[in-house]
């Protein structure tokens, strides 16, 4: 009856724990090449045949192979036919970010430059320096964001439509880009009537064709 009061169970539990500990040590020994229970300092590990070497313990060990961040499966470049352009792309998300950001900054710069020269022309005669500076800055902040925002919206819409067309057709080419440009222009001026839509569509299609021509020459 002693087992009812835990007389023999502790010995069984201790034997099981000891067996599990030995099995874990054996697994670690096979994996690491040394017995971890015998390690008291680093020199013991290094001195064991087949154990770790000092070069493996160095914080910068293995960097001579280079940073292999491009080897990750999700970081592979797009395999869509004709999708690779001036900048390596992993898919439509990269095209969306690069295209929208670059066009927005370009529009912001061009608009700001136009506003700068416009402000210089409109400076009131015989005005103090602060008023002259304020006039120039007002024109820059009005023209720059206006052109940048409109260019960014056009680029965002174009990339979304172009990526959708490429996905449906299974390839990226001039035809898809021109069609995407025409649709982008039409959507951008859709609230102004049919005539502004047609003008905007033609201009965007021409811009897309010109961009494709520049890429073909550069690449």
UniProtKB/TrEMBL annotation:
One of its GO terms (molecular function) is protein transmembrane transporter activity. Residues 1-33 are annotated as: Disordered. Coiled coil: none annotated. It is found in: Mitochondrion inner membrane. GO terms for biological process: protein import into mitochondrial matrix. It holds the Pfam family Tim17. Residues 12-22 have a biased composition (Polar residues). It is a multi-pass membrane protein. Keywords: Membrane, Mitochondrion, Mitochondrion inner membrane, Protein transport, Translocation, Transmembrane, Transmembrane helix, Transport. InterPro entries: Tim23, Tim23-like. One of its GO terms (cellular component) is TIM23 mitochondrial import inner membrane translocase complex. Belongs to the Tim17/Tim22/Tim23 family. Essential component of the TIM23 complex, a complex that mediates the translocation of transit peptide-containing proteins across the mitochondrial inner membrane. Component of the TIM23 complex, at least composed of TIM23, TIM17, TIM50 and TIM21. This is Mitochondrial import inner membrane translocase subunit TIM23. It comes from Kluyveromyces marxianus (strain DMKU3-1042 / BCC 29191 / NBRC 104275).
